[in-house]
Amino acid sequence: MHSTSWIEINKDNIKRNLKYLIKRIGKAKFTSVIKGNAYGHGIETYLPVAESCGINSFAVSDAFEAYQAEQVKSDDTELIIMYMIDNGDLQWAIEKDIAYYVFDFDRLEKTLEVSKRIGKKARIHIELETGMNRTGFEEQDLNKLIDILKSNLEHIQFEGICTHFAGAESVANYLRIINQFDKFKKFRDLFNTLRLLPYYYHTACSAAVLTYPETILNMARIGIAQYGFWPSKETRMYNLLSDTNKFTKDPLHRALSWKSKIMTIKNVKAGDFVSYGNSHLALKNEKLAIIPVGYSHGYSRSMSNLGHVLINKKKAPIVGMVNMNLIIADVTNIRDTKINDEVVLIGKQGVHEISVSSFADMANYVNYEMLTRLPDSIPRIIK
Ligand SMILES: *Cc1c(COP(=O)(O)O)cnc(C)c1O
Fold first, then answer.
1. What are phi and psi for residue 43, nearest 5 degrees?
2. 158 strand-pairing partners
3. Which of 36, 83, 110, 126 has its CA 20 to 30 A from that of 297?
4. pTM (2 decimals)?
5. pLDDT tens string 209-264
6. Does the C-beta of 224 come closer than 6 Å to ligand 1?
7. Residue 223: CB within 6 Å of ligand 1?
């Protein structure tokens, strides 16, 4: 069955992004973060593309995403679950060799229970609380934690220690990030002194890789940047200003476009109201393109009378309210527009572009939210 819209993923752009980011992190291990359905790009679509570029480690948020990744990944590709695993799924994760974060004593005990029972080592990353105040072992837990880990080394594979920064994309958080990193190093030293050595030390997300390179250590967890988005305008500006070539070329390339086509055309007379309510009054005779995408497909209602789409290489304004399943674009000035013409909701056509960020700004979302709101049910196509 045909879908009313589709998402195209540009493989060459992903390749270029990964190549650039691999260069930025040097010898450290690249873990590709594919939570949120690979930031809207589709886990099943994105993972094999990244694998073909040499990536063999992926981080997801929960067991269900790990299950999705399992279906498409190569045998030697590794998965890490950073957040939720129901206790009932721990056995599955351990049997599948999926690594996961352990951030409290409860998860540690449940892990040891299962690994003893099934006679298989659990691969764990110990998350440390350094100041985000969300998840992770606290400083006062560490001696007890290290004791438990050391006396259970036949039941666990101690893969890593890690933490996550509370907003490395904004200079407003500078002191908080620096303090977090100092704390992490102090905790790392305690592990070293007590002779419990993991393989990986990891703290850096995209923004940290791009602005605090000293935090990369021997592994980085990179999400948004691999899809071609700067974590924030600040991060982009910081990199632009420190680039000797002043970014004659932006090194990050967006890989996602969202497209649909015109379902029908409606001509209205000057003085008529269009769609629900009275938010759009035709001031002239208007030719309108009816497009089969609405807020149920992730096209935000706050784009009503504000957003644009691209049709026949021109910008067409959205008029009236975004409906559940339809939007209406004014094509009065776009000659020869007809049923089935392609509509670009996000992406380029000719010289124009509807960027995720312009879309996100208007809808009051950040890129991250906009991307992950794109429903899983929209088909993803590799281009
Ligand atoms: C989402 C996430 C990342 C990746 O963040 P980006 O800003 O997209 O690079 C890294 N680590 C953790 C724990 C995360 O939740």
1. -55, -45
2. 124
3. 83
4. 0.96
5. 999 999 999 999 999 999 999 999 999 989 988 876 666 678 999 999 999 999 99
6. yes
7. yes
